[in-house]
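Folding problem:
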Amino acid sequence: MANIISDETIAYVGILAKLELSGEEKEQAKRDMGRMLDYIDKLGELDTSGVEPMSHVFPVQNVFREDVVTNGDTREELLRNAPEQKDGMFMVPRTFE
């Protein structure tokens, strides 16, 4: 499978990754990609006939709770702590002019 990796493929991957590879680096990348593809081919030899397909190794379930308001509208109570307020909002000092 390693012979599938061509110089054009390495150049294209370098462009996609925005890398400038020297000739030696291109050859090393070609060997590395070839070894990766060989390993993937080796994994394809495994007998997986009795293994059920899965999308994740851990059981996936929704862990989020419903978005329910529990404290209600306490605007008046909060505004009692405000040094100044206007139209139901906190008044703060200007940060720019």
